[in-house]
Amino acid sequence: MSNLGVWEPAEPGVKRCILNAAASLMMMEVHFEKGADGYEHSHPHEQMSYCLRGSFEFRIDGEKHKVTAGQSIAIPPEARHGVTALEADSALLDVFTPIREDLLKR
User: Fold this and answer.
1) Is the four-CA dihedral 18, 89, 49, 62 of positive or negative sign?
2) Which residues form the Cupin type-2 domain (predicted)?
3) What's the rounded mean pLDDT across residues 21-47?
4) pTM score of the predicted model
């Protein structure tokens, strides 16, 4: 059983919903409270994040990048990365390839 279309807590102040998953591509919406962190981690998947609203500071392999509404950022496979919401009610649209089986079958 998958959690497709179900909102679930991620880290403190962060919730996510897997919107769709195909054979090799997955899309997920993630909502953040101001100051909430997406903890630093890495995975073998290629990722793109599009800022739906608000603004974020991404940390990718030790480099900081600010992303605001309407901007996107690419995260290479295996890159150590994390993110912090700089504004209240910020949201990202994350896309992964291949799909994140580790998130889909929780």
Assistant:
1) negative
2) 29-88
3) 96
4) 0.94
